[in-house]
């Protein structure tokens, strides 16, 4: 009989407060990734915008590099190989052409090779109360496909920040076998205070999967305030680890057998049904014209 692979591992989430200096951001990230590895984490996740937090499209484009030229990616790949860990880079701005970047997440394996790439599907284009306005699509091109990756201990589903508000993505990842799902993020303080915990716990409960979300936190050089509160949540919706607002590392010991247990207790992933949507009292357009 083939032995069952070990479904247990320690996860470490790195919370950052990235600024406008790529070099300084990488130095801080590297120090915290090392701390996570020293703490026994086999899987380490950093937040969205690990190497740069910038709102102005022209400055994002100026700092971005192609995947082949990216010094940030090369440095983090070398770090993963040195530490012998799976390093999940929440996202980097990767230049696609002179006008567009991809907000791209990378899973790096313990040999330093790229195991998976994921381009953020949903662009954060919103106007918030108090004058905050964000137009991610002004400089970033959305991705076109969901992504999963098989690690020795289980199947990972990839997502980034604003994707969290689109539950159909997470259901698709779960039905494709995801046992733990990453949500590296840079949630604004305003939206985070209102929705962060509810959405993360909901995605875990709906999918019967662990949700691991490393975030940016605090007031950044560009004037943006992010919420922090990196979270590790169980398939039953329990918060296993949580950060505050300051940079640092949180840990949790993950046993993916809990996914099987949660999905057996609430087998909702097996109960999808096709259905139509009807608006009561509304006449079809043709009938309405005839009646008038």
Descriptive keywords:
Nitrilase/N-carbamoyl-D-aminoacid amidohydrolase, alpha/beta, 28% helix, globular
Could you describe the 3D structure shown?
With 292 residues, this protein is an alpha/beta fold. It has a single domain, classed as Carbon-nitrogen hydrolase (Nitrilase/N-carbamoyl-D-aminoacid amidohydrolase), CATH 3.60.110. The protein is 28% helix and 27% strand. The strands form four sheets. A six-stranded mixed β-sheet has the order 5-4-3-2-1-16, sandwiched between helices. A hairpin with a 5-residue loop joins β14 (231-233) and β15 (239-242). α1 (22-38) packs parallel to α3 (71-83). It is globular and about 60 Å long. The termini are far apart.
Shape assignment: globular
Number of helices: 7
Straight-line N-to-C gap: 73 Å
Q: Kindly report the oligomeric state of this protein.
A: single chain
Query: Strand order within the widest sheet?
Result: 5-4-3-2-1-16
Structural class, by secondary structure, is alpha/beta
Largest sheet: 6 strands, mixed
Order of helices and strands: EHEHHEEEEEEEHEHEEEEEEHH
State the CATH superfamily name: Carbon-nitrogen hydrolase
Taking pLDDT < 50 over at least 5 consecutive residues as the criterion, the unreliable ranges are none
- The CATH topology name reads Nitrilase/N-carbamoyl-D-aminoacid amidohydrolase
- Measured by DSSP, the beta-strand proportion falls in 25-35%
Task: Lay out the secondary structure.
Blueprint: E1 8-15, H1 22-38, E2 43-45, H2 57-63, H3 71-83, E3 86-95, E4 101-108, E5 114-119, E6 125-127, E7 133-135, E8 147-151, E9 154-158, H4 167-175, E10 180-182, H5 189-207, E11 210-213, E12 217-219, E13 225-227, E14 231-233, E15 239-242, E16 248-255, H6 257-265, H7 285-291
Parallel strand pairs: 1-2, 2-3, 9-10, 10-11
Antiparallel strand pairs: 1-16, 3-4, 4-5, 6-7, 8-9, 11-14, 12-13, 14-15
């Amino acid at each position: 009989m083939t032995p069952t692979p070990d479904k247990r591992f320690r996860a470490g989430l790195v919370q950052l407060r990235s600024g406008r200096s790529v070099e300084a951001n990488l130095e801080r990230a590297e120090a915290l990734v090392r701390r996570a590895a020293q703490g026994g984490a086999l899987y380490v996740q950093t937040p969205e915008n690990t190497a740069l937090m910038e709102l102005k499209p022209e400055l994002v484009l100026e700092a971005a590099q192609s995947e082949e030229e990216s010094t940030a990616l090369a440095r983090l790949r070398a770090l993963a190989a040195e530490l012998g860990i799976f390093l999940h880079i929440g996202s980097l701005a990767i230049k696609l052409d002179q006008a567009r970047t991809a907000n791209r997440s990378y899973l790096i394996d313990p040999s330093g090779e790229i195991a998976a790439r994921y381009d953020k599907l949903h662009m954060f284009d919103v106007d918030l109360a108090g004058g905050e306005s964000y137009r991610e699509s002004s400089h970033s091109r959305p991705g076109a496909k969901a992504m999963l990756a098989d690690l020795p201990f289980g199947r990972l589903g990839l997502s980034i920040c604003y994707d969290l508000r689109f539950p159909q993505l997470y259901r698709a990842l779960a039905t494709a076998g995801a046992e733990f799902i990453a949500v590296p993020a840079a949630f604004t303080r305003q939206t985070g205070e209102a929705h962060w915990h509810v959405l993360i716990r909901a995605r875990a409960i709906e999918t019967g999967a662990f949700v691991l979300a490393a975030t940016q936190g605090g007031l950044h050089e560009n004037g943006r305030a992010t919420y922090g509160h990196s979270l590790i949540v169980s398939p039953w919706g329990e918060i296993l680890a949580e950060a505050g607002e300051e940079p640092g590392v949180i840990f949790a010991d993950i046993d993916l057998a809990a996914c099987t247990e949660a999905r057996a207790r609430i087998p909702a992933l097996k109960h999808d049904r096709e259905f139509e949507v009807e608006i009561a009292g509304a006449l079809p357009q043709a009938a309405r014209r005839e009646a008038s």
